[in-house]
Amino acid sequence: MVQNPNQGRPFLGRRGPQKRENEHKINREITAQEVRVVGENIETGIYPLSQALKFAEELELDLVEISPTAVPPVCKVVDYKKFLYEQKKKKKELKANTVKTTVKEIRFGPNTDEHDFEFKLKHAQGFLEDGHKVRAYVMFRGRAIVYKERGEVLLLTFAQRLQEIGKVEQLPKLEGKKMFLLIAPKGKK
């Protein structure tokens, strides 16, 4: 007797498990008994699913479930392909309008001299004017941690010198062997 190798496994059809390609339930996939129908050329209201499907069929459009968690679910009578295109377009616009902020780092030692301080200050001014955040930190090596007050004074002086073009988001804070300060650009006036 030949034994079936798939015995005991669920039948998945010839192509294997089907991946759902629609992110919304449309037409006959909607399972609710009653739905709130919205759309152009249709009176908004709560209708039985069969009547809502008739409305969509008469207008030669699709019934798309746009808010499945509402009670009753909200469905829109619309051309599904056009609906997806408009959603994709809106997402793309939102993504384009979001401002990408980057954080630029500037490193100091606890014994940074005046010339190096001025040099790094100019870099930080440029970063803030370009709309980037600046994360300045003092790195303590070995026994230099005993000079943490110097590091804090250095960072506070740095923040004070940048106060016209930037605002402090995080005051100096010691984490391990680094003391951080975060400065964000001020809004344009």
Structure at a glance:
The protein is α/β, with parallel strands linked by helices. It contains four helices and eight strands; from the N terminus they run E-E-H-E-E-H-E-H-E-H-E-E. The chain has two domains: 68 residues, Ubiquitin-like (UB roll); 83 residues, Translation initiation factor 3 (IF-3), C-terminal domain (Translation Initiation Factor IF3, 2-Layer Sandwich).
Shape: rod-shaped
- Unreliable residue stretches: 9-20
CATH class of the largest domain, anyone?
Alpha Beta
Structural class: alpha/beta
Please outline the major beta sheet: 4 strands, mixed
Instruction: Find the count of extended strands (DSSP E, 2+ residues).
Output: 8
Give the proportion of residues in helices. Answer: 25-40%
Strand content: 25-35%
Return the domain count. 2
Assign the CATH topology of the largest domain.
Translation Initiation Factor IF3
Overall mean pLDDT stands at: 81
Element pattern in H and E: EEHEEHEHEHEE
Q: State the strand order across the main sheet.
A: 2-1-4-3
- Our count of helices gives 4
CATH architecture assignment of the largest domain:
2-Layer Sandwich
- Rounded to an integer in angstroms, the radius of gyration calculated over CA atoms is 31 Å
